[in-house]
């Protein structure tokens, strides 16, 4: 090869290399960011709920190319840039053709602009001068080098001007046809394709422009002659249509939760949403008559945990009563609406059965003096009845027994939070919660006790965790059906609970069917109390109306498979039958839960055969003068009396734990003389009677009253409960840790005294 030839080839190769590299070296206008587009919120079926303007007030909505009508895409290429897929951004043939036509006619009759060049002008607007056109050509080459043809076409169709503040084919289709450009008629396609060339024109000129596009579509084979003839007769759109504005509170809430997304497809069902909105609006006048001004509603599908309807207020445009507040997200006091979850926790801990009698009598807890909604007190009430009637005293007592911290921790696992310790008011409205969160908690009962976040966006995975044992969740729903007397409501099971907050500021009603969970709130957004406002009167009628129109399939709550067992209880106390209960009955109970308590209402006493009085402790009786008899002794009542001649005061007393002490850390050794373990010592109400010790809810040991025994509990928090033969009990919580024995510990032969058992504690 000669030197000249090599030089020529080097020049050619260098020229080609520069030609290939130049487009990559040209700085190009950046494409718009995701936040530069408005947000479109959709129902679950894809129909539009609401659309939002961009930050600069434009109607510009991103719509993917693959979802656009193929005829629209092909017609755009046919009319704007037929060689789009064959040029590098600048169509040399089109430029030459336009130059020749313009020179021949002496005026500008044609242009050589490509879709890429038009996109450049949309991304970087400027005056149309010759130097500017040369720069736009370089930018077009740069865009083609960096982006695929499909990406450039997608950007153009989403940014092209369609008149006024309309940008992008999606906003134009919504404005003129009321729907997204997924499927359009040929006349509709031609009208949209003609707009970017001259977005503002008269009706006559618009008709000519549309028909010109139709003729070109027919010549290109995109439509048939018959389709063209039919499209030419089609009228133009009458004008701009109003954009969809449905479920505005739901749209606002979802957009705030998931900012920056151009499209949000929710789980809301448009039919259910419209049905619930109509049902709530029907009660608007009645609600205002009661003194309230607003209402909110939530519907959750139990099978999927998807939200199907959200109503935020009675009227979005009611400025006088703050109608644009999103009512279903406002945190308010739920009144007694959290009682079912204390009931479920008590079942789960084995502290009650559904028929355990709870005490409903006046009682003060320091400055807290709970009363029932009605002044009547019912004495000893079955637990499920106390829940169905929403009695306050039994549940405050139950909260003390379960433990306030245990209940708050239980609620915390479900995602609830609070700013300050609510104390014993936690079960009567001391914890604030939103309607959406509360309804979601009740949906967990229908989902066999699983708890998880609600699903507001379609396609969001269902994430749940165990919260309530399935048997306890099912029995809680059964208790909430008590007001229906166990009969199906309008052909399907309905469990419901109402609540009224302190000061009668908020009225609640939550209902659960096998298919839906519905929550209703009624009150005022300004927080003022309304005299006489109650959940039963204000919110429950709305709930029942919504349930009536929604219906339920399936119609019955299905018991959890393997989640229940049947246990013997005393019909009087509702606790597992003790050895002296005269008869028993079978009741359902969560499987796998141990019951540390037994019925202590039936107690045996030695009585004088002739007088019927209890035997005197100091008197010696002859054979046959005494007999053993079982008495029913209710809590708070005295046992059978001694004979007046005995001179004995009536016994009272309580079960006391002497060791371990509460809030104490015990350091135990696994070796040597300090390995005897944690000492258990207590006294009961029966001298030398039997004490039953439960560690973390499981029976661990038995002892005599006053006797010391030792156990080796697991390290960490340890809950100790003791119960005597009469059913009275006591409880402490301590902490245990294990340490290695020292040499002195190993050599010492015996402990220094009966109470020196190798532990040391300090106040926790």
What attributes characterize this protein structure?
4 domains; five-stranded antiparallel sheet; alpha+beta; single chain
Helix-strand blueprint:
Elements: H1 3-25, E1 40-42, E2 48-51, E3 59-60, H2 70-80, H3 92-105, H4 115-123, H5 130-146, H6 149-159, E4 166-167, H7 169-177, H8 186-194, H9 203-219, H10 225-233, H11 248-257, E5 263-265, H12 270-282, H13 284-290, E6 294-301, E7 306-311, E8 331-332, H14 339-348, E9 357-360, E10 379-382, H15 383-388, H16 392-402, H17 404-413, E11 433-434, H18 435-446, E12 450-452, E13 464-466, H19 470-480, E14 495-500, E15 506-512, E16 516-523, H20 535-550, E17 564-569, E18 585-590, E19 602-608, E20 626-632, E21 656-659, E22 665-669, E23 678-683, E24 690-695, E25 698-704, E26 708-711, E27 716-724, E28 729-739, H21 743-747
Parallel strand pairs: 1-5, 3-4, 22-28
Antiparallel strand pairs: 1-2, 6-7, 6-16, 8-11, 9-10, 12-13, 14-15, 15-16, 17-18, 19-20, 21-23, 23-26, 24-25, 24-27, 27-28
By DSSP, the count of extended strands is 28
CATH superfamily of the largest domain: DD-peptidase/beta-lactamase superfamily
- Architecture of the largest domain, according to CATH? 3-Layer(aba) Sandwich
| Largest sheet features | 5 strands, antiparallel
Radius of gyration: 39 Å
What general outline do the C-alpha atoms trace? elongated
In terms of per-residue confidence, which ranges show pLDDT below 50 for 5 or more consecutive residues?
743-764
The third-level CATH topology of the largest domain is Beta-lactamase
Instruction: State which percent range the strand residues make up.
Output: 15-25%
The averaged pLDDT comes out at 85
Straight-line N-to-C gap: 95 Å
Q: Describe the strand arrangement of the main beta sheet, using strand numbers.
A: 7-6-16-15-14
Which CATH C-level class of the largest domain is it?
A: Alpha Beta
Class based on secondary structure composition and strand pairing: alpha+beta
């Amino acid at each position: 090869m000669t030197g000249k030839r090599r030089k020529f080839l080097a020049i050619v190769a260098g020229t080609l290399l520069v030609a290939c590299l130049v487009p990559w070296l040209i700085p190009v206008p950046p494409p718009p960011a995701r936040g530069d587009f408005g947000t479109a919120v959709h129902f679950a079926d894809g129909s539009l709920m609401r659309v939002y303007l961009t930050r600069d007030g434009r109607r510009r909505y991103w719509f993917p190319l693959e979802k656009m009508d193929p005829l629209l895409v092909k017609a755009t290429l046919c009319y704007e840039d037929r060689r789009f897929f064959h040029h590098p951004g600048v169509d040399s043939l089109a430029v030459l053709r336009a130059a020749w036509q313009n020179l021949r006619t002496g005026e500008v009759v044609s242009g050589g602009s490509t879709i890429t060049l038009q996109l450049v002008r949309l991304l970087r607007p400027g005056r149309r001068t010759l130097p500017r056109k040369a720069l736009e050509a370089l930018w077009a080459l740069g865009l083609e080098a960096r982006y695929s043809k499909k990406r450039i076409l997608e950007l153009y169709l989403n940014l092209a001007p369609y008149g006024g503040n309309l940008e992008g084919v999606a906003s134009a289709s919504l404005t003129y046809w009321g729907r997204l450009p997924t499927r359009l008629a040929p006349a509709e396609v031609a009208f949209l394709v003609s707009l970017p060339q001259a977005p503002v024109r008269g009706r006559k000129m618009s008709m000519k422009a549309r028909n010109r596009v139709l003729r070109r579509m027919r010549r290109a084979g995109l439509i048939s002659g018959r389709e063209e003839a039919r499209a030419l007769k089609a009228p133009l759109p009458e004008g701009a249509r109003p954009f969809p504005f449905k479920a505005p509170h739901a749209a606002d809430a979802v957009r705030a939760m998931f900012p920056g997304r151009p499209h949000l497809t929710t789980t809301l069902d448009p039919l259910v949403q419209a049905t619930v909105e109509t049902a709530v609006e029907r009660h608007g006048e009645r609600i205002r008559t009661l003194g309230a001004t607003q209402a909110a509603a939530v519907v959750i599908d139990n099978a999927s945990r998807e939200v199907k309807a959200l109503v935020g207020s009675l009227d979005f445009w009611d400025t006088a009563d703050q109608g644009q507040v999103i009512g279903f997200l406002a945190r308010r006091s739920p009144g007694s609406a959290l009682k079912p979850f204390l009931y479920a926790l008590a079942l789960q801990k084995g502290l009650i059965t559904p028929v355990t009698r709870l005490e409903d009598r006046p009682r003060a807890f320091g400055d807290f003096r709970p009363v029932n909604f009605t002044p009547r007190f019912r004495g000893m009430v079955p637990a499920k009845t106390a829940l169905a009637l929403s009695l306050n005293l039994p549940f405050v007592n139950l909260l003390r027994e379960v433990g306030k911290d245990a209940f708050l921790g239980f609620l915390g696992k479900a995602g609830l939070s609070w700013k300050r310790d609510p104390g014993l008011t936690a079960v009567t409205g001391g914890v604030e919660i939103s309607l959406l969160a509360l309804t979601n908690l009740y949906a967990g009962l229908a989902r066999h006790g699983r708890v998880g976040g609600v699903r507001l966006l379609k396609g969001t995975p269902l994430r749940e965790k165990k919260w309530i044992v399935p048997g306890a969740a099912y029995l809680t729903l059964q208790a909430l059906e008590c007001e229906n007397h166990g009969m199906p409501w309008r052909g399907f099971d309905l469990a419901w609970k109402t609540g009224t907050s302190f000061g009668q500021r908020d009225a609640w009603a939550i209902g659960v069917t096998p298919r839906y969970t519905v929550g209703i709130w009624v009150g005022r957004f300004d927080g003022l109390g309304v005299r006489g406002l109650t959940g039963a009167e204000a919110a429950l009628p709305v709930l029942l109306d919504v349930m009536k129109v929604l219906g339920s399939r399936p119609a019955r709550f299905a018991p959890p498979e393997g989640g229940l067992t049947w246990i013997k209880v005393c019909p009087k106390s509702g606790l597992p039958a003790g050895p002296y209960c005269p008869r028993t009955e079978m009741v359902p109970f969560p499987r796998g839960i141990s019951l540390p308590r037994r019925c202590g209402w039936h107690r045996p006493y030695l009585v004088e055969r002739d007088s019927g009085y209890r035997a005197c402790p100091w008197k010696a009786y002859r054979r046959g003068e005494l007999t053993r008899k079982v008495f029913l002794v209710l809590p708070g009542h005295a046992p059978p009396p001694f004979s007046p001649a005995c001179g004995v005061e009536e016994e009272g007393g309580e079960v006391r734990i002497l060791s371990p002490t509460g809030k104490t850390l015990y350091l135990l050794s696994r070796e040597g003389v300090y390995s005897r373990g944690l000492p258990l010592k207590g006294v009961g109400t029966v001298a030398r009677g039997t004490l039953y010790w439960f560690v973390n809810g499981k029976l661990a040991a038995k002892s005599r009253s006053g006797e010391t025994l030792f156990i080796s509990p697991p390290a960490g928090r340890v809950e100790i409960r003791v119960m005597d033969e009469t059913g009275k009990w006591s409880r402490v919580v301590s902490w245990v840790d294990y340490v290695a024995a020292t040499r002195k510990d190993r050599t010492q032969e015996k402990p220094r005294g009966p109470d020196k058992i190798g532990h040391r504690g300090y106040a926790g």
